[in-house]
TrEMBL record, chain A:
This is Acyl-coenzyme A thioesterase 4-like. The active site is at residues 239, 328, 363. Belongs to the C/M/P thioester hydrolase family. One of its GO terms (biological process) is fatty acid metabolic process. Coiled coil: none annotated. GO terms for molecular function: fatty acyl-CoA hydrolase activity. Residues 212-418 form the BAAT/Acyl-CoA thioester hydrolase C-terminal domain. Pfam families: BAAT_C, Bile_Hydr_Trans. Residues 21-150 form the Acyl-CoA thioester hydrolase/bile acid-CoA amino acid N-acetyltransferase domain. It comes from the Eukaryota.
From TrEMBL, chain B:
This is Acyl-coenzyme A thioesterase 4-like. The active site is at 242 (charge relay system), 334 (charge relay system), 369 (charge relay system). One of its GO terms (biological process) is fatty acid metabolic process. It comes from Gouania willdenowi. Residues 20-150 form the Acyl-CoA thioester hydrolase/bile acid-CoA amino acid N-acetyltransferase domain. InterPro entries: AB_hydrolase_fold, Acyl-CoA_thioEstase_long-chain, BAAT_C, Thio_Ohase/aa_AcTrfase, Thio_Ohase/BAAT_N. Residues 216-424 form the BAAT/Acyl-CoA thioester hydrolase C-terminal domain. Belongs to the C/M/P thioester hydrolase family. GO terms for molecular function: fatty acyl-CoA hydrolase activity. Pfam families: BAAT_C, Bile_Hydr_Trans.
Length: 427, 437
């Protein structure tokens, strides 16, 4: 039944401008009491795809509804989900398949329209009752972005505002390749000089012949930066980036001979985000699921038994945090961490490892309040072959994993990179 | 303290906000019991630098929370969460008589907040802070649309909230300095009101014809709002400051066209010759210029021009015949207009007429004339050139910084509540709509 109204209801999203890892409240007032309403988010990506999420609500006796407090009775999320309008986003019906939402230009915000509609039926033909715009930023004000000019290392450096010096982080993504800046920008917004590193272009993974020294050079770009505290640099890696991270943390000869009390690495590197034992070899046959999505985890699992393929984690000298999704269909993350734990325990170094395993979370554990991708398009091989990769995970537990793990990561970085020596030496 | 060892962390939350939103400034990981200065620096659009600072001592955990801790000195003292913005003043060596007013409302005001070692009073620019962050203060919420209005001889800017609407609207008038001042209208739109900032003293049509506008100018602006497809024609209010109050009362009481849902009058008076043109009203004020006072600092005090409040009814707007709610905002230390005396007389007139139930008076001690949206620098005196003259004088507006800042915060909150209540309808509207279901 159409609503006759003289003024629009009042829709308020607070804060209207926020970092992507901050929560918001969505409040609607001046509605008829006890009525059915749909709250919906809509975003047009840089690739020109529409993404949306929505929840079905009932206004209270005062004609108000609050996404923070109230239950959603249906939609792309149910139950009490304060950030459901972002974390359950998916492409609108009719979109191209296998899409993934990733911000390329981090100097501009992600714009999301939040609207409220009458009823719980399909809203697509309706004009919303009210609509506001909210900005989600990867860069805090004052964070500076510097694409690296040096030819040897490809990447982008983000520097927090202020004189510094700051702790530093080397940030590496995985097998998809390319240069992704958004996590580094976000880390700089939390007070770290962060280098987002490109170490091969999309599709180049198998042919890339990146020398270990490339990563050491990248690490030094941060370590030697005038605004970075030399002894407070860490590394963050996801997926293949974890392999690199672990290599750097254990194998780097350059840092093997720094005497105490500076501790290992000439720095106190921290951070390992997800973790891979083996340098990937895609010539192994790949499994497929019923939708023809590629599943890589089974092919990597046997390699855990081959010690010649594994990084020598017993040489680890710094604290490490490993985040894993139990439903990771791309890498056997949990089994890998089990193996690392065993190896470390054998040499009395298990106190260096902190692990968090998330049930029903997949491979792509990203900063919070971003959509979950169970399977997306992926370019692999030098033939630039496009496949659909199964990453795994169920939306709700995966979103919870993203939120919880990000908090743990920030806390781990804060403790190890910003903490005083006394606190850190107790590790 | 060795800087390489220092890990002082500074955070301001939120880092991006509307100008009327509070923030929390936290300094952490300083040594306990440490002397610190927290400073704000802002470079405004005309290139002048403004600063404010407070002196703090960290607690046993090495923390300073500006919202909770005492500032022991600086440009503000006591517990002042927003002191770093309210007490902004031009840096030493600046030109005298400056006033901070945002012209481009679509770009944020950028403020650098820094923390320094020790209790500094000067020379910040030569020192390296321990930490520093940048905050953005916005006059527009995301999605607010800015539309220049030039039809029908009007000079104004319409700000529309995001969304389909329809919205209630506010006609926004500033005072005797003229110009097209957009920032309050932009903020109102960020709170859900379509708002038209109107230049009525230096508008294009005035510059071209050499003549002041008539009542019709305001009525045209009102009709433009009424006929806008995203505005509810029966829910329009006016808000006026200073001479804008004079115009607001004139329209609210005497116009056959303008039917206001409510009116807000800030720092103004009802004293005006009735049934006269805008030009004649201005003249009548100028005729009393001999009552201007100049104090020892050579600052101009104009509050006496309209005193004493006349008893002759033809010399003041007939507030007894007002039919809509009226909110008066009064600074008791207003040195520019006799706002307090006028408010008292308005109250008396409305009580005699039996419509005082429409009146709400907000009266603030030690508060001056320029009652603006909150968390902006307090201007006690500034350079001013009244419209129609060529003389630039230094005007005394009045007010003490801390009290004035508190008044701005309280008045703005109450103004928004008043507008919401009258324009969005409150409970009555909900009940009425329920009966439509």
């Amino acid at each position: 039944m159409p609503l006759q109204r003289s003024v629009a209801p009042i829709l308020c999203v607070q804060p209207s401008r926020a970092l992507v890892d901050e929560k918001f409240t969505v409040l609607v007032k001046n509605l008829p009491p006890g009525g059915p309403f749909t709250v919906r988010s809509l975003h047009l990506s840089e690739d020109n795809d529409y993404w949306e999420a929505y929840g079905h609500y009932v206004s209270n006796h005062q004609g108000e509804l609050s996404v923070w407090d109230d239950l959603s009775f249906g939609g792309t999320y149910t139950g009490r989900e304060p950030m459901g309008l972002l974390s359950s986003m998916r492409p609108i019906p009719g979109s191209r398949p296998g899409l993934r939402l990733r911000k390329k230009d981090v100097t501009t915000p992600m714009l999301v329209t939040i609207s409220v509609y009458c009823g719980h039926e399909d809203y697509r033909d309706q004009t919303p009752l009210a609509s506001v715009l909210t900005e989600r930023w990867h860069m805090a004000p004052g964070v500076q972005r510097f694409p690296l000019q040096e030819n040897t290392v490809r990447g982008t450096l983000f520097i927090p505002p202020g004189p510094g010096p700051f702790p530093g982080i080397l940030d590496m993504w995985g097998g998809g390749g390319g240069l992704l800046e958004y996590r580094a920008a976000l880390l700089a917004s939390h007070g770290y000089v962060c280098l987002a590193l490109e170490y091969f272009k999309p599709g180049e993974m198998t042919s890339a012949n990146q020398e270990f020294s490339y990563f050491e050079t990248a690490f030094n770009v941060i370590k030697d930066h005038p605004q970075v505290k030399t002894d407070r640099v860490g590394i963050l890696g996801l997926s293949l980036g974890s392999a690199v991270t672990l290599n750097l943390a254990t194998e780097s000869k350059r840092y093997a001979c720094i005497p105490p009390p500076l501790s290992a690495f000439g720095s106190t590197p921290i951070g390992c985000y997800w973790f891979l034992l083996v340098v990937f070899d895609p010539r192994f046959p790949v499994k497929h699921d019923e939708n023809n999505c590629e599943i890589w985890r089974e092919m990597i699992l046997p390699l855990l038994k081959d010690s010649s393929r594994k990084v020598k984690v017993e040489k680890l000298r710094c604290p490490m945090l490993c985040i894993s999704g139990c439903d990771d269909q791309n890498w056997p993350a949990v089994e890998s961490v089990d193996d690392v734990m065993e190896t470390l325990r054998a040499v009395g170094k298990d106190h260096l490892l902190t692990r968090a395993d998330y049930p029903d979370a997949g491979h792509l554990i990203e900063p919070p309040f971003t959509p979950h991708f169970r399977a997306t398009n992926f370019i692999r091989g030098s033939t630039m072959e496009k496949v659909v990769m199964l990453w795994g995970g169920q939306t709700k537990p995966h979103s919870e994993a993203q939120e919880d793990s990000w908090r743990k990561i920030l806390s781990f970085l804060q403790h190890n990179l910003y903490g005083n020596d006394h606190a850190r030496s107790r590790l | 303290m060795d800087r390489t060892q220092c890990c002082v962390q500074l955070s301001v939350q939120p880092s991006r906000a509307l100008v009327d939103e509070r923030f929390v400034i936290l300094v952490e990981k300083a040594p306990p019991g440490f002397q610190l200065s927290v400073r704000a620096l802002h470079q405004c659009e005309d290139g002048h630098s403004w600063e404010a600072f407070g002196h703090y001592i960290s607690d046993a955990t090495g923390t300073v929370n500006v919202s909770q801790d005492l500032s022991l000195g600086g440009t503000y003292s006591g517990v002042e969460a927003m002191g770093l913005l309210c007490s902004l003043r031009p840096v030493p060596g600046s030109k005298p008589g400056l006033r901070m007013r945002k012209k481009d409302v679509q770009a944020p005001m950028m403020v650098t907040i820094s923390v320094y070692q020790g209790h500094q009073v000067e020379g910040f620019v030569d020192q390296v802070p321990l930490a520093s962050v940048v905050v953005e203060r916005w006059y527009v919420a995301p999605g607010v649309r800015r539309i220049p209005i030039t039809d029908h001889g009007l000079t104004g800017t319409l700000f529309l909230p995001p969304g389909p609407g329809p919205f209630p609207a506010v006609l926004d008038l500033w005072g005797g300095g003229g110009q097209l001042v957009e920032y309050r209208a932009a903020l109102l739109a960020s709170h859900g009101f379509a708002a038209l900032a109107l230049d009525y003293l230096t508008a294009k049509v005035i510059r071209e014809t050499g003549k002041m506008v008539e009542d019709q100018y305001f009525e045209t602006a009102y009709k433009e709002l009424q006929k806008h497809p995203q505005i509810v024609s029966s829910r329009i209010a006016m808000i006026g400051l200073s001479f804008g109050t004079t115009m607001t009362l004139k329209m609210a009481i005497y116009s056959k066209v303008v039917k206001l849902r409510c009116a807000v009058c800030i720092s103004g008076s009802h004293v005006q010759p009735i049934e006269k043109s805008v030009e004649e009203i201005l003249s009548s004020f100028n005729d009393r210029a001999d009552k201007t006072r100049i104090n020892e600092e050579n600052q101009v005090i104009w509050r006496d021009l309209l005193l004493p409040i006349p008893t002759d009814p033809s010399l003041k707007a007939d507030v007894g015949s007002l039919q809509c709610p009226l909110l008066l905002v009064v600074g008791e230390d207003d040195q520019n207009w006799p706002t307090k005396e006028s408010a008292e007389d308005i109250q008396e007139m409305m009580e005699r007429a039996g419509n005082s139930h429409l009146l709400t008076v907000l009266s603030y001690p030690d508060t001056g004339h320029l009652i603006e949206p909150p968390y902006s620098s307090h201007t006690r005196t500034s350079n001013f050139k009244p419209v129609g003259t060529n003389q630039k004088v230094t005007v005394l507006w009045g007010g003490q910084m801390a009290a004035h800042a508190r008044a701005q915060e309280d008045a703005w909150k109450k103004m928004l509540a008043f507008l919401r209540e009258n324009l969005y309808g409150g409970r009555k509207a909900s009940a009425a709509t329920q009966s439509n279901l």
